[in-house]
Amino acid sequence: MAEAEEQETGSLEESTDESEEESEEEPKLKYERLSNGVTEILQKDAASCMTVHDKFLALGTHYGKVYLLDVQGNITQKFDVSPVKINQISLDESGEHMGVCSEDGKVQVFGLYSGEEFHETFDCPIKIIAVHPQFVRSSCKQFVTGGKKLLLFERTWMNRWKSSVLHEGEGNIRSVKWRGHLIAWANNMGVKIFDITSKQRITNVPRDDISLRPDMYPCSLCWKDTVTLIIGWGTSIKICSVKERHASEMRDLPNRYVEIVSQFETEFYISGLAPLCDQLVVLSYVKEVSEKTEREYCARPRLDIIQPLPETCEEISSDALTVRGFQENECRDYHLEYSEGESLFYIVSPRDVVVAKERDQDDHIDWLLEKKKYEEALMAAEISQRNIKRHKILDIGLAYINHLVARGEYDMAARKCQKILGKNAALWEYEVYKFKEIGQLKAISPYLPRGDPVLKPLIYEMILHEFLESDYEGFATLIREWPGDLYNNSVIVQAVRDHLKKDSQNKTLLKTLAELYTYDKNYGNALEIYLTLRHKDVFQLIHKHNLFSSIKDKIVLLMDFDSEKAVDMLLDNEDKISIKKVVEELEDRPELQHVYLHKLFKRDHHKGQCYHEKQISLYAEYDRPNLLPFLRDSTHCPLEKALEICQQRNFVEETVYLLSRMGNSRSALKMIMEELHDVDKAIEFAKEQDDGELWEDLILYSIDKPPFITGLLNNIGTHVDPILLIHRIKEGMEIPNLRDSLVKILQDYNLQILLREGCKKILVADSLSLLKKMHRTQMKGVLVDEENICESCLSPILPTDAAKPFSVVVFHCRHMFHKECLPMPSMNAPAQYCNICSAKSRGPGSAILEMK
């Protein structure tokens, strides 16, 4: 709950009750004491009433003075109206006419800028006065006064004032408000509303708590608009709406009536009311009981903002105001006046005038900063940057960074620098030095700008040195992430080399130095370090910077590091490093030489043909599984040399292949049978060669070996007549699985018969289909016109005189002849054939089509 505190400067600040903890809820209003001329007045006099116009203020005092003030409280005009208390001041809407009444019964209505004036002295105190809101107009020269009765004064056409009694007999009139054509006033019994147009009193709202003295707890009236009256009396608030009565309901009733739309009780006594949009501002007089003496005492008045509901209200904010002399004030000593145009609220007490204003965005930011809610303050400033006047986004952001640093949240502070400092290089450098002072350069390093803006090289070097002294990994990360033009590369290179003198095998520093060399275009040194470290980026470095001339003497190192990548790179760049050069470099490392030549052979069987002889030994030594595929695919390797090597090493499969390729199939088959003892492979070999003599040799070799006979019986049925084998089997020889083998032979035979029959059916069906198709084609007509010629005499096929008889022979091959141009058919060959096509074939195209 905010408080208004007295200070020597006259300003009013918000504070909290001593008995209450500080509230986190932001106040809705801000306060300041009206000073300057007001301070001088209230040092010698006491305020009794006040009225507010959009252009100026009018303040009445207990010594009968009326002061006109500007909105800062400076005195612009002074009127000595009476020697006693001024009870009320009234202004019309134009601010050109003012009405004043005092405790000694004096009433004055006069023009502030004209000589127009009304004076009257009554025999009783006049408590209230209200001039017509449109008093400036000649037709609206009216005002009301109230003492023991309510009088309406009207100026007649002869410039004389005529008075009439609107109401009397219910005690003193203590409050009045005039809005449009309606006058509302309060006496001891309640509140009345009078329609000045129809001259009718349209309602009476009775007073609720009659136990309160009306002179000590006066009624507060406030027009929210021309038809809504707000009544505050004691602790009760009523909101009344003036409505038009339906013509059918009038009879003898006024044409308007009042409906109470909301009514509720408050906690304290009401001293003043004012509207604020759809809410209410309530000035309350507070009495509290002392815990020590158990006696009532006057507490600070409260200014509450409430949201009216039909039968209750919701408190929006509540501020306790420390005004001068509040301990001695009564409920009747406080007044609440307001300026509708600017939402200004004036709290008037005998010794003080406090101005309450709606808080703007600057005030909201002030409160957030006071509560150290910098993130919200920064967001609010960004959203409302066009409306704030006292704050700058940058200043709030810098304060936020300082706050985070003070709390030790260095990483968050550094992260916020990106958003707050933006492209201001000078501020960036200032913040970096500030982080250096507190030893937190590492925290800000990830967020430094790396382009637009670019800071001084010294800034980046300073951070790199910080990491180099304590965190090699972090240093390496920055070197990878930061562009090399941010700092002096040679300075950092020298610093890294100095550290390597202490720790020469540190891989992180070596790798980082290689990256620095790369940026400095010192690729040779970088490549050497990468190869030493066996780093995966070595191939990327070579490709990116075309370093093939630098690796001609480092091929072995590259192959040792990653032979697959190295071979791919060398083969992809044969134009830069020749095959011959690579083979020479790998001469002392035959296992690597084999890897290279093998990959070359897989890419192209002919490029390395001069090395195929060498490759035979390499395959035999390091990669026997690929020797046989190599021998099969190569057309350049010497077979004799290959056979020699394979025989020396006893490579049977390779020797068999070479023997068969050299035409010595019988020796190859013999080796399979004698060395491998593999009848299936022997049979497969015989099938591949498709040589009857080989089958004969295979049968002769297998005839005394029952397992081989079984294999032959199972596999030769489709290549050799099984009878040849069966006739040669000795009687009484026990052959394993003979029955199954014979069954398989019969099944294979049946399968062959079925296949032949199936193929025959397909062939007959296809032949018949094609014959029908040919017949349909040959039955179609052939177009013969003047453009066609005889293929024999080359004259037009049709005669010029169509009336003459003629004969034309058209063959299905589309060649045309005059009949007389063809040779006459003989007895031996009665059919005629196309002279042109008959030399090629006597097929279907040569059939004849005769046209007459």
Automatic annotation (TrEMBL):
Which spans are transmembrane here? none
Compartments, record wording: Cytoplasm, Cytosol; Early endosome membrane; Endosome membrane; Late endosome membrane
A matching Pfam family: TPR_Vps41
Location of the region described as Disordered in the Swiss-Prot/TrEMBL record = 1-32
Q: What domain of life does the native source organism fall in?
A: Eukaryota
UniProt keyword Zinc-finger, yes or no: yes
Q: Which SMART domains does this one have? A: CLH (SM00299)
Q: Which UniProt keywords apply?
A: Autophagy, Cytoplasm, Cytoplasmic vesicle, Endosome, Golgi apparatus, Lysosome, Membrane, Metal-binding, Protein transport, Transport, Zinc, Zinc-finger
| MF annotations from Gene Ontology | zinc ion binding
- Positions of the RING-type domain: 790-838
Entry annotated with the keyword Magnesium: no
Mark out the compositionally biased spans (Acidic residues): 14-25
User: Which family is this protein grouped under?
Assistant: Belongs to the VPS41 family.
Output this protein's name.
Answer: Vacuolar protein sorting-associated protein 41 homolog
Record organism: Cricetulus griseus
